[in-house]
Design a protein that fits this description.
The protein is of the alpha+beta class and 136 residues long. The chain has five helices and three strands; from the N terminus they run ααβαββαα. The chain has helices spanning 28-36, 44-50, 63-67, 92-96, 102-121, and strands at 53-58, 75-78, 86-91.
Length: 136
């Protein structure tokens, strides 16, 4: 549909809105919705180890976090202590820069979440295809 100026509506992957080397969700609300669906896609082994968790979204990691190890952090997991609720923080701009489509963005978010949880809890290979929990 065209507006009064003869321009068409902008879609999620409109080149005028897309970062030069990534895929950007239409708005932060859409990314938060994608992030809220992530726990349902995690492997059983990772989900059980993490326990109850809250998923939060931040635009970029803090200055101290982004410099740690020389790489940009995509996600951070803080385990809940003594029955507390764990926090999974996903960094929206860093994840969007690594995706070229909506599917790639969903996979990047899922993979970053799994890596952050596995690293924080010491899970050696969270997506082992021979793991008994993952067998159909």
């Amino acid at each position: 549909m065209r507006d009064a100026h003869g321009r068409s509506g902008r879609t999620d992957n409109d080149p005028r809105r897309r970062p030069p080397d990534g895929f950007r969700a239409r708005d932060a609300r859409r990314f938060r919705q994608l992030a809220s669906e992530i726990p349902a896609t995690l492997p059983n082994r990772v989900l059980e180890a993490a326990g109850a968790m809250v998923v939060e979204v931040e635009d970029v990691p803090g200055r101290a976090e982004s410099r740690a190890g020389g790489t940009v952090k995509l996600a951070r997991f803080e385990p809940g202590g003594d029955g507390g609720v764990a926090r999974l923080v996903l960094y929206r701009r860093a994840l969007e820069a690594r995706a070229t489509s909506r599917y790639d963005l969903a996979e990047a978010v899922r993979s970053a979440a799994i890596e952050a949880i596995a690293h924080a809890l010491g899970i050696p290979d969270p997506e082992d295809p021979w793991d008994d929990d993952q067998a159909p």
